[in-house]
């Protein structure tokens, strides 16, 4: 409903210039970039070798089960993204931090990434929470926009209350050793209603997967509270 309303509202400002190459965006469904820029964006198709756990892009070619090993200590089980954080996907991620709207092209790609994943038996979708301060500044959480969209498509419940940021203020980082820094990340999240995650398969939802430290910290606290499996679904994977 809200999505449809925004669609019609935003279509009034059409046509607009592509945010990457400044050609005209012919199709409203393509969001802030033109078709050509979408075509030049690497969308994962199965014809690339990705780390089977964190989804890191390793090389072009026939998909084989490989692990990058850099993610061995991460607490989530598997992370999947629509494609590489570049061109159209990067522009759409940046736009999503400004406007709580997903272009139709992005919606289709994000849903198809879910469809082609092994996450279908998930019990819950959980968007990575923003800090209270950031949430107030932005007015919305972009991960929640993705989570709510996926909830409508899949009928899997999107829960944006159970995982929260703590108000823990870290001490001066330079003064901390590695152990202390790890403890700070660990304490950045809390589970407010453990009974809702116990025994559940969860898909964490976020816009970008960068180092994986944030989703790993989320997965750790969810598993400490009894979650069985925690997977991650993002729009884009940084290289
Ligand atoms: Zn373009
Ligand atoms: Zn990996």
Could you please describe the fold and organization of this structure?
This protein has 239 residues and is an alpha/beta fold. It has one domain: 3-Layer(aba) Sandwich (Rossmann fold), CATH 3.40.50. Helix content is 33%, strand content 18%. It is built from eight helices and nine strands. The chain has helices spanning 2-11, 35-39, 87-96, 104-115, 132-138, 142-154, 178-186, 213-224; strands spanning 48-50, 57-60, 79-84, 124-127, 157-158, 163-165, 189-191, 201-209, 229-237. A five-stranded parallel beta sheet has the order 3-9-8-4-5. The longest helix has 13 residues, at 142-154. It is globular, with a radius of gyration of 18 Å. The chain starts with a helix and ends with a strand. The mean pLDDT is 91. One zinc ion is lined by residues 51, 53-54, 56, 67-68, 70-71.
Biggest sheet descriptor: 5 strands, parallel
Quaternary: single chain
CATH topology: Rossmann fold
Number of domains: 1
Radius of gyration: 18 Å
Corresponding CATH architecture: 3-Layer(aba) Sandwich
- The outline comes out as globular
Order of strands across the main sheet: 3-9-8-4-5
User: What is the number of strand segments?
Assistant: 9
The number of helical elements comes to 8
Share of residues in strands: 15-25%
* Amino- and carboxy-terminal Cα gap: 35 Å
Structural class: alpha/beta
Average pLDDT level: 91
Q: What is the succession of H and E elements?
A: HHEEEHHEHHEEHEEHE
Secondary structure: helix percent? 25-40%
């Amino acid at each position: 409903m809200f999505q449809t309303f925004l669609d019609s509202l935003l279509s009034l400002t059409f046509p607009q210039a592509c945010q990457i190459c400044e050609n005209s965006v012919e199709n409203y469904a393509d969001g802030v970039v033109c078709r050509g820029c979408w075509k030049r964006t690497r969308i994962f198709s199965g014809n690339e070798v990705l780390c089977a756990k964190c989804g890191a892009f390793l090389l072009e070619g026939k998909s084989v089960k490989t692990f990058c090993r850099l993610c061995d200590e991460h607490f989530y089980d598997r992370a999947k993204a629509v494609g590489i954080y570049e061109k159209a996907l990067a522009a759409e991620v940046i736009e999503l931090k400004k406007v709580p709207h997903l272009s139709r092209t992005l919606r289709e790609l994000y849903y198809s990434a879910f469809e082609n994943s092994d996450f279908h038996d998930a019990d819950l979708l959980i968007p990575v929470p923003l800090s209270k301060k950031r949430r107030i500044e932005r007015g919305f959480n972009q991960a929640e926009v993705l989570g709510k969209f996926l909830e409508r498509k899949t009928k899997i419940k999107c829960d944006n209350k159970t995982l929260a940021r703590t108000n823990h203020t870290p001490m001066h980082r330079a003064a901390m050793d590695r152990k202390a820094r790890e403890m700070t990340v660990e304490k950045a999240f809390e589970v407010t209603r453990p009974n809702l995650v116990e025994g559940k398969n969860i898909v964490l939802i976020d816009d970008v997967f960068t180092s994986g430290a944030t989703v790993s910290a989320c997965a750790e606290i969810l598993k400490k509270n009894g979650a069985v499996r925690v997977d991650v679904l993002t729009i884009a994977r940084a290289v």
